[in-house]
Write a structure and sequence with these properties.
about 550 residues, alpha/beta
Amino acid sequence: MKYVLVTGGVVSGLGKGVTASSIGVVLKACGLRVTSIKIDPYLNTDAGTMSPFEHGEVFVLDDGGEVDLDLGNYERFLDVTLTKENNITTGKIYQSVLEKERRGDYLGKTVQVVPHITDAIKDWIESVALIPVDGKEGPADVCVIELGGTVGDIESMPFIEALRQLSFSVGQDNFCLIHVSLIPVLGVVGEQKTKPTQHSVRELRALGLTAHLLACRSAQPLLDNTKEKLSQFCHVAAANILNIHDVPNIWHIPLLLRNQNAHLSILKQLDLLSIATPPDLEAWTRRAETFDNLTDSVRIAMVGKYVGLTDSYLSVVKALLHACIACSLKPSIDWIAASDLEDDTAQSTPDVHAAAWKTLRNAECVLVPGGFGDRGVCGMILAAKYARENNVPYLGICLGMQISVIEYARSVLGFERANSTEFDEQTPDPVIIFMPEGSRTHMGSTMRLGSRRTLFQTPDCVTSKLYCNSRYVDERHRHRYEVNPDVIGVLEEAGLKFVGKDETGKRMEVLELPGHPFYVGVQFHPEFKSRPGKPSALFLGLILSGRGQLETYLTRHENGS
């Protein structure tokens, strides 16, 4: 197995995840099979209990793993299906070592960070790297490892030591280290400064790791004298200093690396030049250029709880992008904090309330994504009602689906206090209830998680047609609450149709409102399986409906064209 390690220096948030993904894309374009591992040095076992405001979205895998959003980047860029084991955390490592200690595996030994924790890290990396993630048999050729955080962080020290040992044990022809660093420009001087990168590389070398390539983040392309200085003081060949400057969209990053011959430097270090082919990035080039040249846009109102940080809905944003590009449109997302639509905001800050409603009314389609807790729920209900009553295309995901059920029960059935038991345990009309198998004492990994099958109840529904007339679909889930089976009959009699159910027939997965241009709610998260060039069917339906093109699209596909 060949390893490419991507580390970061100077500051966090430089785009190590996108850089690691792009390196994987270029190597895959050279005919190599690639897998990925993300190391997160935090003590949490996984990302499942973290606030989206603090850490961005929680990405869900087929096997139910709740992981860092960078694994979403890996899956989208490389078109692979990763496992929960591909996300290593300090919590997982310590948990596994302590379980062994309790079992007596280390009987008689003093269990220490070195060698027991570092050995556990190495063993985990080497075993996970062998798991095929591209649907083929046998291990990949290259494993790209991203080490989260910044070199020098106390919490990442055991991982740095383990990776140092790994680089020594596998040999220099099987290990390539790419260090991502910042080249700042001071406003007063206007000069590209290399000193922060020099210090970062020195810190890395003091810990026993030597960078083979530098990936320098900057607003503008690096100047030649900057490269020379970096080469001289960081002990890295000038040809191995890559410049990842700001680009119009991130699909340019693999092209940027290819144009600087990054693949040749990596392949040379890994002794793979003899089996690799010239990189074929025609599809990526076409996709990046298409996005750059789009002029017509579609306005999408995103009504959510965590709109203060766009990374909270990263996969939703990417799924909208994939769908829009398939329709030759540029997404224009209008972020609306759900609480801004509520009557309380009209009293406290009327200007904010008026602006939110103006934005909603100007949108061509409305999307209510997932979330937890009762903040903003009343605003989401108002958004769903507006979309339903005004024939505006609506897609509700997870909580967004439950919101549409609550709104319909209140507005159409007249159940004024209809609610979810998540928000009101004493509601006389619980249309959304806690799942029987859920845990009320433990939060981590206790939801209904991962890929589950949804069976379409009729082929004559919009969702089935969008999924190419399939009888079923496998999508990823992450929820604790579900539509109350006891109210299905009365809701359907009133016009709301549940066209997708789980394999037991008791759990509602997809709802539609016949007669509406596009009013769809899904309990699953279709955004997690959207890919560039292979957009999610439901996001595609939302965008097409927003432009009044859905019927034409469905008719054309029904006729097999």
